């Protein structure tokens, strides 16, 4: 029988969960745990420069692999700094385990040094949280935390550990539970066959169908199944911002992203559809636009592992609670055994209509006479230089939308962005988390001069751990998305959206031991970007000057229907 | 429409705050809430009365079910059920009104549980509507204090909420 301290049990349990890297920042409440980390070499700790970055690194690892990432932060400010990252993961249903230090049990509630009620603070942004009450419970609690984080609809779980639970001299038998059983938690593992049959009947009867898939297909590892289903039925597919890569972006049946900045053809197809098959998507406000005008002629089949996502904003005609993968497989079996197919003639007419929409506004942007590059050109170049095969970790703003629109993702788990919370500062740490775990892959951080400055300190971490990500900074010297809204809704009163006093990013990158590249002309872009990606072992910060007046289009008209869009500064549907 | 939702909850620290937090976080309404341990010491039973249309109530039950500490949820108003609330109400009771309080309490099958020369404290058990009716029939002018337990409910017949 092996006796371990609570601190040692934390590290051992992580090892037994198969964790290779943890991302964190030490502090008083965690000193015992950090000492235990020092005395082993199976779990490697990555020291970030700000706790928010630790959570984003763990989060991005999860987005790229489907497995829960782990962050370790101390009590008080360490914990509160992690909250943004936890909320980011929560909004996008990303599995993550965040271990937070806590003051000693007898001090809780006494406003002790670096005390904060992390259970209370994190409650609205976690799938669940635990406060460790007895040191010997640590392995079981950590096991449960991973189980909850990674099953059903995934999400972040916080484990708050008071310092006295980790005292080195208090030793207990280490028992890592083989399995987890919780009477109050049993996520659905299989869709209801009756409902699936109903869905199948609707699919067969559809004349103007659209498959609308989201992050649930990515995290549910159902992208192959989705592709097979769509190919078999010859249905058009649109992806949400979170769902990009769930269906091959270069395939003919892919009509682009939908929603606020969705493609013309995707939004038109949705609006005119007679059947919408929603898979692992949650009809959020950035997708539906005005819910009262949403897809007036469509029957809706909604597959989601979380029953609460179904009929939350848009009522489903056929709700199916279950994991995307299994439910799609069952639909495929019905197709095979019935030997039925949808009306080919009707589909043919539907495709003609979609192709016509495509030619009307197929991802167009205008290149004018100005010397300035269009941000869209930069993303298209990134797609070209990396062969569409890079991990693209985005920050938040216009560049994020351009990346979503113009980088063609053919694989799942390659598009890493903060979709739900919209967390500026996410991109760089996310790219770091991916690069660390996929050292041979091309990893790009698409960012802007605003977002990058929200976690710029992590350039130091990149140096310490040799994380040669490529930072593609679309520098328009303004908070582009804010500015766009101000242009469109506030008569161009650019309140606080202009970035003055920008640093010299080249020197900044160099001072952290990296390479900086400045690109001002489109003519230089391809060579520079090719060179940057050829420098396999170096972080390259590409500061790329782009047109500050560019807007993201299409853009849905607020509270309108799916088809109500601005297509350019002057054109409206 | 008003709904009475019963919840079996793990008797864990913080479990109640998850339920209460959920209601405020998602902008759901709480009219009353009661919670107490059950015969099984690992479980608490919580009853919440809320108001909302079908869509809201569906979301409330689904979101409650999603909470890890929640073991079971039932909307009692979906079936035949009994609801009870306990009220203790203290009146300024002197002169002719003193007899009036006594009479009305008798009619409502309430009990006078504390007496001073100038006050009566009445205990009344019943549906929320009955308690409201009692207050209405005596008027609010002489009320010194009202304390209500919030609604508890149970299904009629053989239906039970247990694990």
TrEMBL record, chain A:
InterPro entries: Acetolactate_synth_lsu, AHAS_TPP, DHS-like_NAD/FAD-binding_dom, THDP-binding, Thiamin_PyroP_enz_cen_dom, Thiamin_PyroP_enz_TPP-bd_dom, TPP_enz, TPP_enzyme_TPP-bd. It comes from the Bacteria. Residues 395-543 form the Thiamine pyrophosphate enzyme TPP-binding domain. The keyword Secreted does not apply. Keywords: Amino-acid biosynthesis, Branched-chain amino acid biosynthesis, FAD, Flavoprotein, Magnesium, Metal-binding, Thiamine pyrophosphate, Transferase. GO terms for biological process: isoleucine biosynthetic process; L-valine biosynthetic process. GO terms for cellular component: acetolactate synthase complex. It is an enzyme of class 2 (transferase). Binds 1 Mg(2+) ion per subunit. The keyword Nuclease does not apply. GO terms for molecular function: acetolactate synthase activity; flavin adenine dinucleotide binding; magnesium ion binding; thiamine pyrophosphate binding. CDD domains: TPP_AHAS, TPP_PYR_POX_like. Its cofactor is Mg(2+); thiamine diphosphate. Pathway: Amino-acid biosynthesis; L-isoleucine biosynthesis; L-isoleucine from 2-oxobutanoate: step 1/4; Amino-acid biosynthesis; L-valine biosynthesis; L-valine from pyruvate: step 1/4. Residues 196-330 form the Thiamine pyrophosphate enzyme central domain. Residues 5-118 form the Thiamine pyrophosphate enzyme N-terminal TPP-binding domain. It catalyses: 2 pyruvate + H(+) = (2S)-2-acetolactate + CO2. Its EC number is 2.2.1.6. NCBIfam families: acolac_lg, PRK06466.1. Belongs to the TPP enzyme family. This is Acetolactate synthase.
UniProtKB/TrEMBL annotation, chain B:
The keyword Transferase applies. CDD domains: ACT_AHAS. GO terms for cellular component: cytosol. It comes from the Bacteria. The keyword Acyltransferase does not apply. Pathway: Amino-acid biosynthesis; L-valine biosynthesis; L-valine from pyruvate: step 1/4; Amino-acid biosynthesis; L-isoleucine biosynthesis; L-isoleucine from 2-oxobutanoate: step 1/4. GO terms for molecular function: acetolactate synthase activity; acetolactate synthase regulator activity. Keywords: Amino-acid biosynthesis, Branched-chain amino acid biosynthesis, Transferase. Its EC number is 2.2.1.6. Residues 4-78 form the ACT domain. It holds the Pfam family ALS_ss_C. One of its GO terms (biological process) is L-valine biosynthetic process. Dimer of large and small chains. NCBIfam families: acolac_sm, PRK11895.1. Catalyzes the conversion of 2 pyruvate molecules into acetolactate in the first common step of the biosynthetic pathway of the branched-amino acids such as leucine, isoleucine, and valine. This is Acetolactate synthase small subunit. It comes from Neptunomonas marina.
């Amino acid at each position: 029988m092996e006796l371990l301290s609570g601190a040692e049990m934390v590290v051992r349990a992580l090892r037994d969960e198969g964790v290779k890297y943890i991302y964190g920042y030490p502090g008083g409440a965690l000193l015992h745990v950090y000492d235990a980390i020092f005395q082993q070499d199976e779990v490697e700790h990555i020291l970030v420069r700000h706790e928010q970055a630790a959570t984003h690194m763990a989060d991005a690892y999860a987005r790229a692999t489907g497995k829960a990432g782990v962050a370790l932060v101390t009590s008080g400010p360490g914990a509160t700094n992690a909250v943004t990252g936890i909320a980011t993961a929560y909004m996008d249903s990303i599995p993550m385990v965040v271990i937070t230090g806590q003051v000693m049990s007898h001090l809780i509630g006494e406003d002790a040094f670096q005390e904060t009620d992390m259970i209370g603070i994190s409650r609205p942004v976690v799938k669940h949280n635990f406060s460790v009450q007895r040191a010997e419970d640590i392995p079981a609690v950590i096991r449960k935390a991973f189980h909850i984080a990674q099953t059903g609809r995934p999400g972040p779980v916080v484990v708050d550990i008071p310092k006295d639970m980790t005292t080195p001299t208090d030793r207990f038998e280490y028992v890592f539970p083989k399995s987890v059983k919780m009477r109050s938690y049993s996520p659905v593992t299989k869709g209801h066959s009756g409902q699936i049959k109903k869905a199948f009947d609707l699919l067969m009867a559809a004349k103007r169908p659209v498959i609308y898939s989201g992050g649930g297909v990515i995290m549910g590892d159902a992208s192959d199944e989705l592709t097979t289903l769509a190919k078999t039925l010859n249905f058009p597919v649109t992806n949400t911002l979170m769902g990009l890569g769930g269906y091959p972006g270069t395939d003919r049946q892919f009509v682009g992203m939908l929603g606020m900045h969705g493609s013309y053809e995707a939004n038109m197809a949705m609006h005119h559809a007679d059947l919408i098959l929603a898979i692992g998507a949650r009809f959020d406000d950035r997708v539906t636009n005005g819910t009262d005008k949403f897809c007036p002629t469509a029957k809706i089949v909604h597959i989601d592992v979380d029953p609460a996502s179904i009929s939350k904003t848009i009522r489903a005609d056929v709700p199916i609670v279950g994991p995307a993968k299994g439910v799609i497989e069952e639909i495929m079996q019905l197709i095979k055994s019935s030997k039925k197919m949808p009306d080919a003639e009707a589909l043919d007419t539907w495709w003609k209509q979609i192709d016509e929409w495509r030619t009307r506004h197929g991802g167009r942007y205008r290149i004018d006479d100005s010397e300035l590059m269009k941000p869209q050109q930069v993303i298209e170049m990134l797609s070209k230089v990396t062969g569409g095969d890079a991990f693209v970790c985005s920050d938040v703003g216009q560049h994020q939308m351009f990346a979503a629109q113009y980088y063609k993702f053919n694989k799942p788990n390659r598009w890493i962005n903060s979709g739900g919370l919209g967390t500026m500062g996410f991109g760089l740490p996310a790219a770091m988390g991916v690069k660390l775990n996929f050292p041979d892959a091309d990893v790009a951080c698409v960012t802007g001069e605003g977002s990058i400055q929200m976690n710029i300190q992590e350039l130091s971490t990149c140096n310490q751990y040799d994380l040669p990500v490529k930072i593609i900074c679309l520098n328009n010297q303004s908070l582009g998305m804010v500015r766009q809204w101000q242009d469109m809704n506030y008569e161009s009163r650019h309140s606080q959206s202009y970035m003055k006093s920008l640093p010299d990013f080249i020197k900044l990158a160099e001072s952290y031991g990296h390479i900086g590249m400045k690109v001002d002309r489109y003519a230089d872009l391809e060579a520079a970007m090719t060179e940057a990606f050829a420098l396999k072992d170096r972080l390259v910060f590409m500061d790329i000057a782009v047109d500050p007046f560019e807007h993201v289009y299409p853009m849905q008209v607020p509270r309108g229907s799916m088809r109500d869009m601005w297509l350019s500064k002057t054109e409206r549907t | 429409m008003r709904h009475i939702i019963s919840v079996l909850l793990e008797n864990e620290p913080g479990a109640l705050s998850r339920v209460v937090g959920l209601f405020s976080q998602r902008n759901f309404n709480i009219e009353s809430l009661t919670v107490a341990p059950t015969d099984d010491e690992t479980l608490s039973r919580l009853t919440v009365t809320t108001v909302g249309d079908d869509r809201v109530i569906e979301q409330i039950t689904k979101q409650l079910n999603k909470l890890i500490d929640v073991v079971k949820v039932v909307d009692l108003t979906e079936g035949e059920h009994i609801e009870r609330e306990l009220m203790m109400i203290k009146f300024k009771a002197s002169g002719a009104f003193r007899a009036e309080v006594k009479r009305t309490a008798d009619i409502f099958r309430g009990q006078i549980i504390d007496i001073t020369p100038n006050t009566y404290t009445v205990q009344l058990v019943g549906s929320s509507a009955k308690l409201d009716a009692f207050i209405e029939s005596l008027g609010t002018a002489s009320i010194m204090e009202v304390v209500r337990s919030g609604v508890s409910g149970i299904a009629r017949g053989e239906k039970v909420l247990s694990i």
